[in-house]
Specification:
By secondary structure, this protein is α+β, with helices and mostly antiparallel strands. The chain contains 2 helices and 6 strands; from the N terminus they run βββαβαββ. It has one domain. It has a 4-stranded antiparallel sheet. Strands 5-6 form a two-stranded antiparallel sheet. β5 and β6 form a beta hairpin. It is globular. The two termini are 27 Å apart.
């Protein structure tokens, strides 16, 4: 179990869980890389995720401890480098 970090038309996260027949997954876009919310989304995606479409898997074991210790969180911060995905939480 976990989340997919997806880069295609924008950058977003979604569950990798099995959906009921006909159901659509909940998609949560990056604030900076939402195709309807930021006219510069393509440049941001290319700079931080790469020009090609892709999926990175984030294991639930990495996420659950973050959320369990901070109930006032409003945002998940994801930082991509060439070799890793760093996760942190933000409360606004």
């Amino acid at each position: 179990p976990g989340l997919w970090l997806v880069g295609d038309e924008g950058v977003y996260i979604m569950s990798n869980g099995k959906l009921a027949e006909g159901a659509r997954p909940l998609v949560v876009y990056s604030e900076q890389c939402h195709p309807l919310g930021n006219p510069d989304w393509w440049d941001y995606k290319r700079r931080h995720f790469g020009g090609d479409d892709g999926i990175e898997f984030i294991e639930a074991e990495r996420l659950i401890p973050l959320f369990d210790r901070n109930l006032r969180v409003t945002h998940l911060n994801v930082v991509l480098t060439e070799t890793e995905i760093a996760l942190s939480l933000i409360a606004r």
